[in-house]
C-alpha cells in the first residue's frame, strides 16, 4: 500500500478507536522498508498510540516514541545523527522549538 494511503488509514484507525487493526497495519508498514521511510515518524507515533490504547506497558510506549524522534527531528539512525532521549524533552517541557519559528 502506498505511504500516503497507509498513513491516512492509520489515522482513520486511530480516530475510529480500532487500535488492534491500527497496530497490525503499523507493523506491516514498518516492514515495507523504503515505502514507509517518509512517514516513519508518524507511523511510530501512531503505533505508540495504538500500543497505549491496548494497555501496553508505559516503557514500551515510550520506547516507540523515542524511536520516532530521530526521524521526526531530522536525524537518521543510518546517518548516525541522534536526538536526545524523550525524557530530556519531557524534562524541558516539550520538544525544542525550530529556531526559525517564533514561539
Would you spell out the secondary-structure blueprint of this structure?
Layout: H1 3-16, H2 19-30, H3 40-53, H4 58-72, H5 86-91
Helix pairs in contact: 1-2, 1-3, 2-3, 3-4
Distance between the termini: 37 Å
Reported for the largest beta sheet, the result is: none
Secondary-structure element sequence? HHHHH
Regions with little confidence, pLDDT below 50 for 5+ residues: 79-84, 88-103
Count of helix runs: 5
Overall mean pLDDT stands at: 75
Counting helices, strands and paired strands, the structural category is: mainly alpha
Number of domains: 1
Number of strands: 0
Strand content is under 5%
Overall 3D shape = globular
Short structural summary:
The protein has 103 residues and is mainly α. It has one domain (3-91).
Q: How would you describe this protein?
A:
The chain has five helices and no strands. It has 103 residues and is an all-alpha fold. The protein has one domain. The longest helix has 15 residues, at 58-72.
Amino acid at each position: 500500500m502506498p505511504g500516503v494511503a497507509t498513513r491516512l488509514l492509520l489515522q482513520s484507525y486511530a480516530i475510529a478507536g480500532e487500535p488492534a487493526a491500527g497496530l497490525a497495519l503499523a507493523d506491516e508498514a514498518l516492514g515495507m522498508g523504503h515505502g514507509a521511510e517518509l512517514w516513519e515518524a508518524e507511523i511510530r507515533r501512531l503505533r505508540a498510540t495504538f500500543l497505549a490504547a491496548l494497555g501496553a506497558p508505559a516503557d514500551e510506549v515510550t520506547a516507540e516514541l523515542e524511536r520516532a524522534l530521530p526521524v521526526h527531528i531530522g536525524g537518521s539512525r543510518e546517518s548516525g545523527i541522534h536526538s536526545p532521549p524523550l525524557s530530556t524533552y519531557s524534562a524541558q517541557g516539550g520538544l525544542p522549538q525550530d529556531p526559525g519559528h517564533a514561539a
